[in-house]
């Protein structure tokens, strides 16, 4: 019986298909399998603010924490920051206050219309960021340590009273376009300026380093006071490191600007943390 002429064509097609399948399989074997890589460091949004309620700071920014427009503006900022999706909130309260802090936060999560007797940036901003992000954990890491900002005016300064007085009379002279006390600034603009790297550097100088220009003939009164502020912030950092944070955590830290500045310095040199760009969440 004669073989139909179309059989060889079918056989060739099958052979070609078989070759293609083998080549495809070989190609698939060569392609690397992409796996999700766990972050090598804890992601941190390190955010500085002025104190929105009572504060003992020597210089403060006027702010009415009970004004509805202010609260609405804060919540708009919280909405932007919540895009970071933190798993942990860190705020400027002492660890001993954690049970109360966590109780207040739970109350806010169950009813965001809850009001607090003396609200500040913790209740107004951190709580709202956490609510929008579904964050469960919140911790305070502050450490109280008294020191004297005004030591340079209380001693017979034999180091350099000219430099000290010039700086303290106008700390923003070198960066006037970032002055936090400029009149008419909106809340978002104030917070953008607060988190600018040049302002964070300035806050370390204003709160500590400038005091190295104050001291008696053979004394180090200013430097010793500045050392206390470094010590306080190092202890705050130590409190942060006491927390059982995981590499997969995303941590939102809300502190007064000078603490944010010190934490930035410490975390930049610490392989356990990786700070994200704050302005990615403010713009």
From TrEMBL:
Pfam families: DUF5694. This is DUF5694 domain-containing protein. The lineage of its organism: Bacteria, Pseudomonadati, Bacteroidota, Flavobacteriia, Flavobacteriales.
